[in-house]
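Dock zinc ion; give full complex structure.
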Amino acid sequence: MSDTSAYARVRERLQQTALLESALAVLEWDERTMMPPEAGGYRAEQIRHLAGLIHERRTAKELGEWLEELEPESVGRHSPEGCDIYWAWRDYQRHCRLPQRLVEELAEATVLGQQAWAEARKRNDFAAFLPHLEKILRLKREQAEAWGYDEEPYDALLDEYEPGARCRDVAPLLAELQSELTPLVEAITSAPRQAPFEILQRCYPVAVQREFARETTRRIGFDYSRGRLDETDHPFCTSLGPDDCRILTRYDERYFSGGFFGALHEAGHGLYDQGLPKERFGLPSGTYVSLGIHESQSRLWENSVGRSLAFWKWRFEAAQEAFPEALRDVSLADFHFAVNHVRPSWIRVEADEVTYNLHIVIRFELERALVQGELAPADLPGAWNEAYERLLGIRPEDDRVGVLQDIHWSAGLIGYFPTYTLGNLYAAQFLEAASTALGNLEELVARGEFEPLLEWLRRNIHVYGRRYLPGELVQRISGRPLESRPLITYLRRRFEPLYGLE
Ligand code: ZN
């Protein structure tokens, strides 16, 4: 049999599996937007059944045999076909290395873990969640051993979300960020000038916010003939097909930033999905490369672009027209300062750009120690509170706003947190390169011309799917490995003048 026919079979199999996966995504999107409450039981059965079919197809023996025929160890993974073979083989092996018993135990432990976590958070009762966390950790360590690693088990877990990333490289970057950002947060907190945050808590009618967010995301390039913007409790972005990208946000009449920047963030994810080669949908060469790179696109549009002065030079007048009651007496400078309000807080998802990464540094330190067995789960609340005091200067008043705030650990998502800060680091380094290439990025943004930036992102990142690892993309784009300097410089340039710290 020729290689071409083996590849054709692999390709067909992957695309058929993508049909099932995207059907699953439709069910999940509906569950989080439209589904009536009583429909949950049957929906869970549908999802479980489909997920089972998908798992069977991914781990089917014949897929492994076709892949082996293609000698995956020897193909170059940068061409579209090589990329498909490389990742299909890697994913196949990772699936096959996990004993069925472990897969089932993990699935059960994380379903029960999430229920226990939700209940424990409600009652501020970490002890009730502790046995679940202990079990999940034990299973995740077992998973790491099954997948294998060179230096430490955490690497195997991190690699699932950020292929190629290693603690050896990530830890120093986070340490550099921490040593720069903790003093910056202190300086900002005690600066005499503070952001007029109250502006954002005036009345912003939801119907108008909806229209404003839709029009703004359309203008930055989100294609509404191939996507939709809807509402949900926990905003996200999902693609239901090559021409069907769904983004979701949540509006609050008394808080402008939540809905608007939520929409911009998800639209950033959506622009990446819409920029992947659609004829390769469902194949690795048509799939996003990592969570960190995905997050770099959302954070770039939400923050680097969306919270810049240039952006509001373009959009503030329209905002004033849309929300005359809230913004009539507000200046562009005050509005821009307000949307860049910095204050240490307990809750990561509500954090500003400066403090956000410190939340991630804390999660990374703690979960790495948990996985290494250097920190006992029972000691977690104490270690958490101590870290918040040390890095952010605040101590959570209870575990609800402390160690119980995030769903990740109860869902078995260990090794996931670093991708949030990696996203910010990538975004800053990409933006430096884009600014150099485009020359007058700020002027373009101030005129509402986003096409050149989007086109640059498409050409340098989106079109490649998984053909380059995140680290390779960074190297190709900037000529350097990932560094902390671009993000630190970016944050200082934006926030020091605002707070009068120059
Ligand atoms: Zn995101």
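Observed: The radius of gyration is 23 Å.
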